[in-house]
Amino acid sequence: MAGNLSLLCVVEDPAISPSSRLRIYKHLETLRASGIRTEVMLQPKSASAWRELLSKARSYDAVLWQKVLISHWNALRLRMASKRLLFDLDDAVWMGKKNHVPYVSGKQARRFWFLVKLLDGALCGSPVLEKKVRSIKPRLTTALIPTSVPELPFEDHLESGSLPSVVWVGMGPNVVQVEAIEEELVAAHEQHPFLLRIVSNRKPSFREFSSWKFTEWSEVAEYEAIRSADLGIMPLIDDGFTRGKCAYKALQYMACGLPVVASDVGVNREWIGETGSGFVVSPGGWAKALGDLFSDSLMRREMGRSGWEVVRARFSDVQVSRQLAASLQQLITTR
User: Fold this and answer.
1) N or C: which end of the chain has fewer CB within 10 A?
2) pTM higher than 0.90
């Protein structure tokens, strides 16, 4: 049976959500090669689109719904039409967001609880998300599937004699995360001058810090900027939403052989600090961590190498594709 399975993936529009591109589309070839006949369709926005989905769902061994929470009525309809109902999440979707600012939402929490109760299995992007799902349905079969990054050749980021370069990559709504550590960036720069490269679709609004350059985000530009940097940063304001983050930025830096300095939030301590791939810091610790790395090129190289090896072993597209295929076969066939 494992060699003749069918799966319908119902995903967010990749034009507006990186999750579908990074967690589903890039793995389709491996899924199909593993014997899972896989079709992808966008999440329905109209009554006719819902009718099409529900009709199509009945002919598949499983339906994988991605991330977006839906009304109780639609969740029930999807449950009834699906032989096996699976869910993929890479964010704390039980939180609400208004103008990209997270808040505790009773509506989202109720929708999340109701959907999880209906599930046959879940793919979780981090241990924090997996723990949350199991707190609602302890016996649910889950799989930890990180958001993968490319497997790239290792590059030495050697001392060049020029101004050290720090990179931050993220979408416009997340620029607030790097703005929040502005005072610490200023303090670090006073001790060890450096250039911060922001790769995004929105420029930061720093009040005082001026040693930065902006690069408009694209799939090509982000990796070009990372490879040309000396280290990468991942600041996060500690809240209920960021604790569910899957360290994707950090994994991108690690894939390029860069040491990482990241906030001690969510999975960062386990995947960055405990693997020797960089420093995880609390508020007030950024200037020291950056200064230590600027002062020691050997430490930067060793941490960069450790992160690169961790990615190859656990987080590369190749490794995660295989893991995803095996996990889906189990989730679809387990009764």
Assistant:
1) C
2) yes
